[in-house]
Amino acid sequence: MSETLRLLIADDHPMFRAALRYALGEIAPGASIVEVSSQSALEAAIASGEEFDLAMLDLMMPGAMGFSSLVYARGERPELPVVIISSNEHPRTIRRAQQFGAAAFVPKSAPTTMLGEAVKAVLAGDIWFPPQKAERDEHDAQLADKLALLTPQQLRVLMRLADGLLNKQIAYELSLAENTVKIHVTAILRKLGCHSRTQAAVLVKGLSLEDEGADLHGSTTQ
């Protein structure tokens, strides 16, 4: 692999990031690695304009709601392949990750050889997912299609709206004028086919992992 590879790791557990960095050093020697530990830090890294060849995302970072980090990354940088690294190995989680645009899914319990297979496949332009039996979910497909209509800024506004923030709070967090936030909210509701902020928030809850049947209280480290 090229020594100029730039990789982005997004995980809130320092020990797991260190383990992943070590593993990637074996897989892609000489690669440059940027680490972030929250949704806001991920947004800043992606918005910085820095070029990355691959992003590796945990699903349970602070500020993220299930697949929101994946949806945001794909919306902001559709050319950037995203590998999900998660302790939630439920077949439906794996299927949903694929439907929301991930290029690969690697369980945190997987050996380094499996991680290497996934990374090499994705960098070669392929996808990589472990065998799983969950079927395609039409509700998830429709949600993914709706979210794809939003601009990256609208996605940022939507995620904060789903957290229950008021327009002035969203404006403060995103350094926007309150009127700009109002305009974004109006556009978001129209694109999502929602009649209220509450309805949009409920729609976003479809990104959560709460019905996957796995331990959602934190990720495990290897």
Features:
single chain; 10% strand; 5 strands; alpha/beta; Arc Repressor Mutant, subunit A; globular; CheY-like_superfamily; Rossmann fold; phosphoprotein; 10 helices; disordered C terminus; 222 residues; five-stranded parallel sheet
In short:
This protein has 222 residues and is an alpha/beta fold. It has helices spanning 14-27, 39-47, 68-76, 91-99, 112-123, 138-147, 152-162, 167-174, 178-192, 197-204, and strands spanning 6-10, 32-36, 54-57, 82-86, 104-107. 47% of the residues lie in helices and 10% in strands.
Provide structural commentary:
With 222 residues, the protein is an alpha/beta fold. The chain folds into two domains: 6-123, Response regulator (Rossmann fold), CATH 3.40.50.2300; 139-207, Orthogonal Bundle (Arc Repressor Mutant, subunit A). It has ten helices and five strands; from the N terminus they run E-H-E-H-E-H-E-H-E-H-H-H-H-H-H. It has a five-stranded parallel β-sheet with strand order 2-1-3-4-5, sandwiched between helices. Helix 1 (14-27) links the parallel strand 1 and strand 2. Helix 7 (152-162) crosses helix 9 and helix 7 (152-162) crosses helix 10. Mean pLDDT is 86; it is low at 211-222.
